[in-house]
Each structure stands twice: as structure tokens, then as C-alpha cells.
Amino acid sequence: MDKPSNLLLKLSRRLFDDTTEQEKFIDALIHPEPFYPCILWCREKRSLFKIEPPLSWQPYFVDRLSFGEKPGQHPLHNEGYYYCLDFSSVFAAMSLSAVRSPIHTIFDMCAAPGGKSIFAWKALQPQLLVCNEAIGKRVGMLISNLKRCRISPTIVLSKDSSELNQISSSSQLVIVDAPCSGQSLLAKGGKVPGCFHPTTINKNANRQKRIITNSAQLVAPKGYLTYMTCTYSIEENEQVCEWFLNKFPQFQAVEVPELVEYQSHHSSIPCYRLFPQSKLGAGAFTVLFQNTEMGEIENLDVEVLQRVGIRYQLGDMNLITTKDTKEEVLESLLVRDDF
Ligand SMILES: C[S@@+](CC[C@H](N)C(=O)[O-])C[C@H]1O[C@@H](n2cnc3c(N)ncnc32)[C@H](O)[C@@H]1O
């Protein structure tokens, strides 16, 4: 792309008051440049690659690698030592750094290929991770990644979010990494026809509202819901959050201290954006909500999951109990303190 479309110009003016920032944003999309490769260590870290200095908020289990490193080709990749993901995904998943309760069950509503699930599993060490992927043909790669990285105990489902209402409000964390118009793919050199068109954006925003509504039903009392996208449009990000808080007043947005410098200027609620001109990643939006309702946490009944239709299961399901036994607060779990 050599010239920005009128729709892209319009979006840049809505996103940034400052003309220099508008130009930098447009330039990042029409002249994409590579971002550092990034890996998430699922097992103990090894010195295999040349790495870039970590950012202050970068989790200890994430490395940004120098240009030229090809982690996907190393034999330890096949052995599941690490998972390759975009740094934008790390940014989005950092909303989990503000999760303060012990987490028994994590439910990832839009899980394939698995990056946020694996991040959450590593960061929060739940007793059960349930990964759902609505699109059948994407389930294979999700299972293959979970298997390769030995993420356990895990259950994989493949249902539309509307079919999960038999499951009680039993997850302390629900992740909604929503399908979106995918505008940030342009910053990675991809082609996404129509991604700035209002029809595309509205269609996605409506789907996001439907998915987040169905997901809210699964959140346990005092539990969390994180919402994220890899797109820039305000309708799919801040406006979905504002709509959600209006519809579900029992939820409140939680501040994420690690991301405070990335606060979105398009909402007064704490929500965070990474833009491609930062050179860190193609772009992401993230927010963390907490359910303020009190009450008993219902058991996530594995038999209900079986009725829904388990596609894959790894690990000892006997480990799954109703009671939270972890006393410790997960303070500073994510951010390394050794540099
Ligand atoms: C942004 S991607 C998720 C990426 C994943 N969380 C990760 O970190 O690897 C969004 C996912 O939502 C799925 N999806 C598409 N339509 C959906 C729907 N109606 N309900 C739920 N998920 C849907 C897509 O197939 C895609 O896998």
C-alpha cells in the first residue's frame, strides 16, 4: 500500500489529535517493518537465542529475540519448550498482571491458536484451563500447540459462545480475545480488504458484544473477564467496553498498573492500547473487568463439559476441586525483578 485510503486517514484523525502521531501511525501501516520475534517459555528457560533488553513490564517468561533469530526452526520448539507469539499478544495478555485472586479455572472463549491461553496458564497456574474455539477448522492447531507445550490440565471445546450457557458461573478468569476487523495485520505486511469500512467494523462490534455477553455468564463471583482485540477502531474496543459496563453494571474495569503509560485516550475507563509506531508490535487493545458480585463459586462440572462435547483433554481431572486452596496473592507474579 503506497497511499493511505480515506478511511485510514479518517481513522488516524480520530485516534490521534497530534498530526505527527497520525503520520507515524499511517506510515507504520503503509510501510510495514518487522517486529522482533518473541517467545513465551513454557518450560525452564535456556540460552538459545540472542535476546533484546526486556521492557520494564515484560514478564520473566517472555523473551524478545534479535532480528534474524528463527525460534520456530529450533528443535526445542518441537519439544514444546516455548511458544512463538507476537509481542502485541504479550501486551494484550498483560492485563492479567492485575489479577489478584487465586485462579482455579480459566476459560478462554476464543482460544486458537493458543497464545493467550498458554500465557494465562504460565502466569496464573490454574488448576484447570478450558480452551474454546468456535471455528472447527482452527481447533486442530490449538490442540497441537497445547499438546506440544504440555499445557495441563486442559480441556478443549469447540462451541459457539451461545451454546455454553449450561456451564455455570464458575471460572475465576474468562478470556475474550475477540475476532475483530484485524486492522493491525496491515502493520505486519498483511492484506485485510475492507478492514476500515464501517460495515466491517459494525459487523465485528456486534459479534464482539454477543461474545462478551455470553462470556460474562461464565465469570464466577469476584472473578475476572479480560477483553482484547488486535484492531484499532474505537467501535470494537472502547465502545464495546462502555456498552458492556452499561449492560453488566456488576462488572467494573480494573486498573493495570503495568500498562498505565498505554492508557487509551478514548475512554475514561482503564483500558490500554499498543500502536504500531511504538515499534513493539502491530497493535493491541486490552481491558480487565472484575465481577463485583459476591457469592459462592459454583463448581465447573466436568460432566457438563462432557455433555457440551470435549474435543481434547490433557491432565488429571481429579485435581479439579471446588475449593480454592491457594492462599497466596499472585502479587508481582508476572513482572521480572531480576534486572
Ligand atoms: C484473535 S483470535 C484468537 C487468538 C488466540 N486467543 C491466541 O492468542 O492465540 C480470535 C479467535 O476467535 C475465533 N472466532 C471466530 N468467530 C467466533 C465466534 N463467533 N465466537 C467465538 N470465537 C470466534 C476465531 O476463529 C479466532 O480463533
TrEMBL record:
UniProt-listed PANTHER family: 28S RRNA (CYTOSINE(4447)-C(5))-METHYLTRANSFERASE-RELATED, NOP2 YEAST -RELATED NOL1/NOP2/FMU SUN DOMAIN-CONTAINING
Gene3D superfamilies, A to Z: Vaccinia Virus protein VP39 (3.40.50.150)
Binding site for S-adenosyl-L-methionine: C110, A111, A112, P113, G114, G115, K116, E133, D160, D177
Keyword tags: Methyltransferase, RNA-binding, S-adenosyl-L-methionine, Transferase
GO biological process, one term: RNA methylation
Record-linked Pfam families: Methyltr_RsmB-F (PF01189)
GO function term, MF aspect, one: RNA binding
Source species: Gloeocapsopsis dulcis AAB1 = 1H9
Similarity field: Belongs to the class I-like SAM-binding methyltransferase superfamily. RsmB/NOP family.
Protein name in UniProt: Fmu (Sun) domain-containing protein
Record domain SAM-dependent MTase RsmB/NOP-type: where: 1-292
Active site: C230 (nucleophile)
